[in-house]
C-alpha cells in the first residue's frame, strides 16, 4: 500500500501531451509558468475503513495506461494553441504540470 507513481513517469506524460497538443517539452515552462496545474489522484477504499490514493495500484506493467490516464486528465485542461512549452513533475501521488 506504499506504492506510488515513479518520478520518471513525468517525462512520458509530458511527451504524450506534447504530441497531442503540439507543445515542446521544456523545463522553461517550470521556470516561467503561465499556468500551473496540480493533479491529485482519486481514492480507493479496499475492504477496510481506510482510503488510499489510486496511485497505490501503480505497477510498471501498466505504465502506458497510467501515462494515458494522466495525459487525458491534463489534456482536458489545456486550451489548444495557447501554450508553447510543457513540463511535468510527479512527486509522490501528485502530478504538477507547468505550461508556458
- Rounded to an integer in angstroms, the radius of gyration calculated over CA atoms is 14 Å
Shape from CA axes?
A: elongated
Q: What oligomeric state is this? A: single chain
- Could you name the ranges where pLDDT drops below 50 across 5 or more consecutive residues? none
Structure summary, number of beta strands: 6
Structural class comes to alpha+beta
Strand content: 15-25%
Helix content: 25-40%
Strand order of the largest sheet: 1-5-6-2
Straight-line distance between termini? 35 Å
| Major β-sheet annotation | 4 strands, mixed
Number of domains: 1
Number of helices: 3
What would the average pLDDT be, to the nearest integer? 87
Q: Topology as H/E string? A: HEHEEEHEE
Please write out the topology.
Elements: H1 9-21, E1 24-25, H2 28-31, E2 35-39, E3 43-44, E4 52-53, H3 63-75, E5 85-91, E6 94-99
Parallel strand pairs: 1-5
Antiparallel strand pairs: 2-6, 3-4, 5-6
Amino acid at each position: 500500500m506504499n506504492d506510488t507513481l515513479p518520478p520518471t513517469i513525468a517525462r512520458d506524460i509530458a511527451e504524450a501531451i506534447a504530441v497531442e497538443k503540439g507543445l515542446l517539452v521544456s523545463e522553461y515552462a517550470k521556470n516561467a509558468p503561465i499556468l500551473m496545474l496540480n493533479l491529485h489522484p482519486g481514492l480507493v477504499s479496499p475492504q477496510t475503513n481506510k482510503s488510499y490514493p489510486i496511485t497505490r495500484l501503480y505497477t510498471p506493467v501498466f505504465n502506458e495506461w497510467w501515462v494515458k490516464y494522466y495525459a487525458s486528465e491534463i489534456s482536458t485542461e489545456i486550451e489548444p494553441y495557447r501554450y508553447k512549452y510543457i513540463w511535468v513533475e510527479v512527486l509522490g501521488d501528485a502530478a504538477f504540470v507547468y505550461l508556458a
